[in-house]
Amino acid sequence: MVRVRYFPSNCFRIVPIQDREKTQKDKQEWLRIITELANLNQKFIEKGAGRKVVNPTGEQEYRDVPQFSLKLVKKHDGKIHAYANIPKDKDQVLKTKLENALYLDIGDFRMEEDHLELPDTNLYTFAIKGYHHLAVDLDGSTKFKNLFRSVGKDQLMYSLTMKEIEDQQAKRDELVDARLGLTTTKAKVWHYTKIGAKSAAKAIYDFWYDGEEKIKEKHRVALQQIKKLMPKKENKPYTDRKLASDKNKYMLVEVLFLLWTDDEEKAKQFRSNLQKLMTEMQGENRLEVIRVKPDLSKVAKGRIHYTLPTLCLYQAELSKFLLLPDVEDKDFYSEHLQKTRIPEVMLKPGLGALAFARELYTNRVVYMPMPKNVTEIDSYVKATIAFGEQGSGKTSYIENQILETFLAGAQNETEWRRYGRSVVAFELADGKMIKNVRQHIPSWARKNVVILNHADTENPLPVNFHDVIKINKKSRSIKKQIADTETKILLDSVGDDSKTVAVERYFKAALQASYEVGKGNLIDALKILKDQQYWFQTLQKLEKKKKRNLAKALEENATDMINDPSVLKTIKNRLVPFMTDEDFVNLIAQEENPDIDFWKWTNTGPYLVLIYLPGSGQEIAQELRKFLFTHYFMKIWMMMLARERLEDNKRKECLIIVDELHQILDQRAVQNLFGALFKEPRKYRFRYVFTVHGWSSFDEAGKNAEKLKRSIKDARPNLVLLKGGDDFFKSMADMLVPYDVKDFTELMNMEYCGIFRIDVAKKTHIFMAKLIEPADMRLPIFQKISLEESRSMANEFGRPREEVEEKIYGLEETQEEETTCQPQNEKNLEEELAEITGGSGL
């Protein structure tokens, strides 16, 4: 047995590139790659390739010529991917020639070295067997692509491996003999004996019987009998064309189909379909589908099996088997032209680096690198807006952002404490996001996970701004700021559309008074307005505390309300229905819980704070949900501003995830700080990530919509533009150069892909990428949690509803009794009120 020494080769993945800036190449009738393959080996043959030699061990060895193999693989994405095994010579001359030929045939493409994995499990392999000397039908188009479609989701590979025949003349002689049936020595001897006999008989006949017509006629029968012994030439025009021209170059070709399926019937059907196709295109040949067991390592390396069936094809025939990838054909995998490159610094993993995407085609992970200095931190904490319609991948994106930031790739508690950062995230859907995140938290980090679950109305959480006041205790204006903010939140949450500022004016002053000398909540503020006696008590406390300006404001408000009785009626009509919501009262009328400590959570840690505000029509009213969303949003903002008193190096990075930002864009409190929302956080090391559906989401802001949009454009934040963000892309085109709307539209044919605009180390990078896969697909699950368990989790910082209501309503009854049982010799409160206000009281 002769040992074969194959010419070395490398396997490359061939990826066509869609470049709409260039005119697509006209389809060539003749593939340039075939011309190169048919003239590939002459220099190597001259140097000794293609010969049998005896190696130093005494073993006979065949030194093969370079081979080329094209493989088309249908993968699980449903696309046909192209691979090529290209001969590897010292100066890469062959690779360059073949690359140039492919460019002429298929246009722009990129090649990357790639190793094919060919498992042998559930594998069915078929080879095509045919006669070397006979030709196939050159008419009609090949239907190989139908085979890829027929296998459904199973994987199929079409492998076409070929080499130029070493001795073309010897092969042509061999094919001519085979055409005549001279495939054995005995057949050849008999054939040429008959030719010799015929020639001799004719010569003798012509010599002896020249001019003797009668005798000549008599022996003509004998001559015809000799002719009958000669081989009959069949009418085979395809084969005649194959063998006639000296210009035809012959290629030895191995054709294999590899199908991976666990369904034997499907394999049988595929073989039947393949045989039908071969029969249609076989012409004068007879192409048979044979089940074989190849050496998969040889298939992967692009080497011909000399023990398996092969074909001998010339250029025109090879074009019927050679199916090249095409960017215009959606069955083939192709890529969009990448106008920019992702910087290498964003492709380097490491502790503290946050994975958020993958390169569009190479699949390398893209990271936000961990800042090395103060300058890089400023870029790192820049706000990000993710635009995309429902199903575009926004939720998966923010789940990964949460887990990456909180754990920062840590493998143990030591690494987590060093590299993890605090996160506050809003969940406004069904609780699935919180469930998904919690499943990936290891036991050593769970103690720092805080869940504020407003679906748990049986254990209501105290909701107030007392913690903000405590942090800002040196500020003389903080209570006024909070009263102003909270009043706006309340009125906007209940949908107050009155044109008068009266409600806001009176309620704001009452709420400030409540924070100064009362209980410091909205219920208490309303009581100050509608309860004469309580108003007077509050006024006395303000005077005693020397809050003269606020006391004077309350007096003036009381006078105006006496002169216009409709004011109090309006306040009651708008606010009382909302404040009779028991869930609302149970939240805001409680005393503060010092363990609810956003200052600690955002400045030490790392901590993960998950705020669950159940969706519309679920556990809480829509108005309350909006109120809570805005309340927490503003609280976090105020906590951020309080960092001003910290040294710069003590301001730790903190991620704030605000999903569905548009749900609070109608809130004046949010609108008023929108200009600063994308600028100030960088100073305080708060990194905001917002998600919205598109510009239409800003319609919620009413007449201020354009103002908010301009704020975003002026701030030039980081951007993640996913499917559905077309309108945003158009309006921000100047920020996304060199990509345009057509690039974005074409990219949307791919799932979970987008255009990213990201600042790193004071440099802006714009690139195409796909979102990193969901956390469940790449991170370990440490605890399995059901959605119901996540939604019904009891509030650690809440108080039992019965206890809360007993304290609220029991205290109110006690106060009413105390007011009713006052001594008669004391001055009547209404009289005192009249003296102060100059009227008859409220």
Give a written overview of the molecule:
There is one protein chain. This protein has 842 residues and is α/β, with parallel strands linked by helices. Among the domains are: 3-171 and 243-321; 181-232; 462-595 and 802-842, no CATH class. The protein has an 11-stranded mixed beta sheet, sandwiched between helices. A hairpin with a 2-residue loop joins strand 23 and strand 24 (763-771). Helix 17 runs antiparallel to helix 25 (622-641). The longest helix is centred in the first third of the chain and has 24 residues, at 185-208. The chain starts with a strand and ends in a 5-residue tail after the last helix. Residues 818-842 have low confidence and may be disordered. This is AAA domain-containing protein. It comes from Laceyella sacchari. Residues 536-564 form a coiled coil. Residues 811-842 are annotated as: Disordered.
